[in-house]
Recover the amino acids of this structure.
């Protein structure tokens, strides 16, 4: 016969495993509409931030694109939308990048020890690589959203008009 304490412990372990895996959570999570809304928010922010940062660094936009980054642990589907600009000809250094990000309303800007800097603007991640190289990137990323089952993956890059 199984001890009552052992049975209680087994039930608690099973419930904890279900809670951690997301099972039994009522099916909450991001839908296709939520992903579209996040993409639109990131696109709007990118159009407000990225042209000014690139201009402040004396660079020219070579390419601008958006795509969903996939994250997660293989069990949980997490996605976030990122707009990236590849720029060339920057006449600047990391201090100039920090100043350009801050002028664009990016807060909590931190310099990466291996180059570049990153911070936050309205809950979005904004980052730039070291402008001293041949080319550099500057990006705006939304938060990772845990996606419900059955939402199609959009893996294709989309050209972005920063207009």
């Amino acid at each position: 016969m199984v001890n009552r304490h052992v049975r209680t412990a087994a039930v608690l372990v099973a419930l904890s495993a279900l809670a951690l895996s997301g099972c039994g959570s009522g099916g909450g999570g991001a839908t296709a509409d939520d992903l579209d809304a996040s993409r639109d928010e990131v696109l709007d922010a990118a159009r407000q931030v990225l042209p000014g940062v690139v201009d402040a660094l004396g660079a020219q936009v070579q390419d601008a694109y958006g795509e969903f980054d996939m994250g997660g642990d293989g069990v949980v589907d997490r996605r976030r939308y990122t707009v990236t600009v590849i720029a060339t000809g920057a006449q600047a250094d990391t201090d100039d990048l920090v100043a350009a990000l801050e002028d664009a309303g990016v807060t909590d800007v931190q310099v990466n020890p291996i180059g570049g800097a990153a911070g936050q603007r309205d809950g979005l991640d904004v980052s730039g690589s070291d402008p001293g190289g041949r080319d550099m990137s500057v990006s705006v990323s939304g938060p990772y959203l845990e996606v419900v089952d059955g939402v199609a993956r959009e893996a294709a890059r989309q050209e972005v008009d920063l207009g």
The chain has three helices and eight strands. The helical segments are 4-21, 32-56, 94-103.
